[in-house]
Amino acid sequence: ASGDEKELRAPICCILGHVDAGKTKLLDCIRGTHVQEREAGGITQQIGATYLPAENIRDRTSLKAETAIKVPGLLVIDTPGHESFSKMRSRGLSMCDVAVVVVDITKGLEKQTVESLHLLRRHNVSFIVALNKVDRLYGWKECTNAPIVEALKKQSDDVKSEYKWRLTKVVTDFKENGFNTAPYYENNKKKKVVNIAPTSAESGEGVPDLLLLLVRWLPDIITDKLAYDDTVECTVLEVNEHKDLGTTVDVVLINGVLRQGDQVIVCTKQGPVTTIIRDLLTPHPMKELKAKGAYKHHKEVRAGQGVKIVARGLQYAMAGTSLIVVKPGDDLRQAEAAAMQEIDMAIRTTDENEKGTKLKKLVVSRLARRASMCKLPVLEPWKLSLRT
Ligand code: GTP
Ligand code: NA
Ligand code: MG
User: Fold this and answer.
1) 370 lines ligand 1 (CB under 6 A)
2) Using a 6 Å cutoff on CB, does residue 219 contact ligand 1?
3) Which atom of ligand 1 sits closest to the CA of residue 21?
4) Which of 9, 74, 107, 215 yields a CA-CA distance of 20 to 30 A from 361?
5) Is the shortest distance between the CB of 202 and ligand 1 below 6 Å?
6) Which residues form the Tr-type G domain (predicted)?
7) Distance (Å) from CA 135 to ligand 1 centroid
8) Cα-based distances in Å from 10 to 72, 187, 290
9) Do strands 279-283 and 295-298 pair parallel, antiparallel, or not at all (unpaired)?
10) What is the pLDDT of residue 216?
11) Rounded to two decimals, what is the model's pTM?
12) ipTM (interface pTM)
């Protein structure tokens, strides 16, 4: 970037959609990972975060080396699609600059797709539609990782016409929900009409197109939002016990910098806890923060990034609350009062778990089905840890 251009932070992109639309699988396809296959019953139960450096994204697209990418990378937030997790979806979205709504082309708009649209409208967040599972169209000819227009050209007339009517149906259904959409390759009003990027998370068709839209189209649309800011904005995802590190919290750093030695306040049900950051860890690029793996240690981390924080007193940190950095000269009392307000709010909006049973039944039945197919012992339901 030229010297007079403002420094942009990595945009945070939330993946939303109905259960099993292929959100996690799409990320697996982009990362070259197998997170989805390891989820209990194939159901995501926790928000995830993955940093995709610009250079890795470039490798997956047809972008030439000399074409600038204005952002250092992209932090993608995976959310659960099951109805039980509406609070997590809303939390995920509130951290984001932009979203990808994943729709299964064989199913069209489903209940949580529509719920996501309401959220997006309420928060006024721009989004792209990934119209996923195109490889499921009857007779689809696989064209691994091909741009979608090329892949479509190779299809039979039957596949093309099935694609066309399913796409038309989806466009109509979006219209009914108040959104104008068009396949991105025919969309010449990109600021007003929502882009649809057809994809297959299975064989990768259209994935380069989706990535390209995210790094080329997106920063132009939301440049102002991405201006780098020193004020720390940081949200707690979850608390973890790590066998070597002790208690850690996973956070999304939305803006600003976190440093080792920073004094921070976390929100707990017992009240604000003031502590010092001992260590800052990130997973390796293209790896999921919540997946157990190797971490890199940092003296400081810049936004947007998913970070694992090591510090004392984190045990009771509440998911969804802010982590507040107290700078030298800041009024500690005032910062603690702000934390207290958040705690009150978080306690008041805590979900009751009435939908948890339904979720548990679904996970158990899927595990049982898989066990019977693979002749594995069935896991006892009470051994499952469900996180609603
Ligand atoms: P939740 O997180 O539970 O809401 O689901 P999800 O949206 O993350 O969907 P997930 O990635 O778990 O995929 C659901 C199922 O669809 C899995 O069996 C995937 O293998 C399959 N799937 C996802 N994307 C595709 C695709 O593009 N093509 C095909 N054929 N299957 C897909
Ligand atoms: Na799933
Ligand atoms: Mg998932």
Assistant:
1) no
2) no
3) 7
4) 107
5) yes
6) 8-225
7) 12
8) 6, 26, 19
9) antiparallel
10) 87
11) 0.92
12) 0.99
What is the whole-number distance in angstroms between the Cα of residue 347 and the centre of ligand 1? 33
Q: Which residues surround ligand 2, an ion (CB under 5 A)?
A: 20, 42
Q: Please, what is the Cα angle at 69 between 204 and 229, to 5 degrees?
A: 115
CA distance 229 to 255: 6
Cα 23 to middle of ligand 1, angstroms? 6
Q: CA-CA-CA-CA torsion for 6, 12, 13, 16, nearest 10 degrees?
A: -150
* Whether 191 contacts 178, CB under 8 Å: no
Q: What is the distance between the alpha carbons of residues 13 and 160, in angstroms, rounded to a whole number? A: 31
Query: How far does residue 8's CA lie from ligand 1's centre (Å)?
Result: 32
Atom of ligand 1 lying closest to residue 43 CA:
3
- State the distance from the centre of ligand 1 to the C-alpha of 22, rounded, in angstroms: 3
pLDDT tens for the chain, 388 residues long, are 444 467 889 999 999 999 999 999 999 999 999 999 999 999 999 999 999 999 999 999 988 888 889 899 999 999 999 999 999 999 999 999 999 999 999 999 999 999 999 999 999 999 999 999 999 999 999 999 999 999 999 999 999 999 999 999 999 999 999 999 999 999 998 889 999 999 999 999 999 999 999 998 888 888 888 988 889 999 999 999 988 899 999 999 999 999 999 999 999 989 999 999 999 999 999 999 998 889 999 999 999 999 999 999 999 999 999 999 999 999 999 999 999 999 998 888 765 554 567 777 777 777 777 767 666 555 554 445 555 4
Best of 36, 106, 290 to mutate for ligand 1, by most ligand atoms within 8 A of CB? 36
Nearest CA-CA partner of 43 in 17, 18, 20:
20
Q: Which amino acid is at 45?
A: Q
* 246 prior amide bond cis, ω within 30: no
What is the H or E stretch that residue 359 is in?
A: helix 356-374
Q: Does the beta carbon of 41 sit less than 6 angstroms from any atom of ligand 1?
A: no
Structure tokens at 370: 């898989």
283 lines ligand 1 (CB under 6 A): no
